[in-house]
Amino acid sequence: MNVAEPITIGLLGAGSVGAQVARTLVEERELISARVGTPVRLAGVAVRDVENPRDWRIPRELLTTDAERLVDEVDLVIELIGGFDPAAGLIERALRQGTAVVTGNKALLAAQGAQLHALADEAGALLRYEASVGGAIPILRPIEDSLSGDRITKVMGIVNGTTNYVLDQMDTTGAAFGDALAEAQKLGYAEADPTADVEGHDAAAKAAILATLAFHAPFTIDDVYCQGISDVTPDDIEAAALSGYVIKLLAIVERRSSGAVLRVHPTLLPRTHPLATVRGAFNAVFVVAENAGELMFYGQGAGGVPTSSAIMGDVVAVARRLRSAVPETPLLSDAEDLEPLSIEAAETQYYIDMQVADQEGVIAEIARVLADHRVSIESMRQPGSVSPEGEVEDSAGSDAGAQVQIVTHKAQERHLRATVETLESLDVVQSISSVLRVEVEQ
């Protein structure tokens, strides 16, 4: 390794991820320096309280409460505070003065990513954030670098470990939603307030980041349709299983001829789909590109140690660029005029679970409604039976009605929604208990 001035690093935040990053930079300094090709030194760690206990005991001389001063004195800033304040101000301060930034702040990137990239481009600063999506999974660099010569048409992923654990427990053990969530909290997979996870907000932020990189166009979390998993019932899980499906919370971004649709929602996947096999709190991202075809990236999606791996990958990559002084190519230098489209523009399939009157001609009337809205039936399941004349026969008796479960063929979301609205207005439809979207093999 050539003798040179060390690249100095300032770490902002020393939580579960930050403490592991600090440990790696201190204990593996020689290894990291060798891989960069020049000395790398942790200059300081900015925290709110230097006396707080941490997952790894950071040397006292590295700790400081003056984050702004630390930002002003180093070559590379690692931001692991999270949220908007003071993280946004500190990142902006670093970028404006040309200091490189590595962050895992998905909420900030999903809201202000385009502005931060503009600041970085103006000052010639480096900005990297692999850890913001998928924890330890290397997904953003492959999209940005390895697939840069290809055209990505769709990205679909399980990007929240909490919801995947909950749905997996409901599928494999028959647990109710609340019980599965409580177990996730007990194991440390879910926060005390799990709202951001179970309502899909965490996945929506990651969807915006994935879409920006995959489609070379600026998107924010406000462009993402978002629906969580709190309404998924054991009956939905059981019905999906009997039909050969599993329910996953998916973040889906797909290119359309007139723009891009970004959506997060519970989804029925065939059990033969690669994403259907992702268990527990693991994450996986499925990418479809015109030339490369289908690719899947799989691994641990959270936790201090796994996520620190993604942070350190960015640190080494950025430090190498600083050492070689290679100019940065602006992320959106070739930005496409790709507008965010409403969920109405999506093409998908629906699973519809309804309770209907136990009388002759019910199935025929339901089929007519679907045909009127240009929606066709791929499959239908009725826990009782259906007579050749289209009469629903149910062992529970006519007063209770009968349950009918339909999976449609692919159609535009607007037609599918209109279909459900019309079905709800029919006298023969007593109630619609569940409507879920379906994704099939590519």
Shape descriptor: elongated
Count of discrete alpha- or pi-helical segments spanning 4 or more residues: 14
- Kindly state the number of beta strands: 20
> Can you tell me the CATH superfamily of the largest domain?
Dihydrodipicolinate Reductase, domain 2
Largest sheet: 12 strands, mixed
CATH domain fold name of the largest domain: Dihydrodipicolinate Reductase, domain 2
Give the total of domains.
3
Mean pLDDT: 91
Radius of gyration: 25 Å
Structural class by sheet pairing and helices: alpha/beta
CATH class identity of the largest domain: Alpha Beta
Distance between the termini: 48 Å
CATH architecture of the largest domain: 2-Layer Sandwich
Helix content: 25-40%
Question: If you had to describe this structure to a student in words, what would you say it looks like?
Answer:
With 442 residues, the protein is α/β, with parallel strands linked by helices. The chain has three domains: 7-136 and 305-324, Rossmann fold; 140-298, Dihydrodipicolinate Reductase, domain 2 (2-Layer Sandwich), CATH 3.30.360; 346-438, ACT domain (Alpha-Beta Plaits, 2-Layer Sandwich), CATH 3.30.70.260. The protein is built from 14 helices and 20 strands. The protein has helices at 16-27, 29-36, 67-73, 87-96, 106-123, 140-146, 161-173, 177-186, 195-198, 201-215, 234-242, 304-324, 362-372, 413-425; strands at 7-12, 40-46, 63-64, 76-79, 100-103, 127-128, 152-158, 224-226, 245-256, 259-270, 282-289, 293-300, 340-341, 347-356, 377-381, 385-386, 392-393, 402-408, 411-412, 429-438. Strands 7, 8, 9, 10, 11, 12, 13, 14, 15, 18, 19 and 20 form a twelve-stranded mixed sheet that branches. Strands 3-2-1-4-5-6 form a six-stranded parallel sheet, sandwiched between helices. Strand 11 and strand 12 (293-300) form a beta hairpin. Helix 5 packs parallel to helix 10 (201-215), helix 7 (161-173) crosses helix 8 and helix 13 runs antiparallel to helix 14. The longest helix is centred in the last third of the chain and has 21 residues, at 304-324. The protein starts with 6 loop residues before the first strand and ends with a strand.
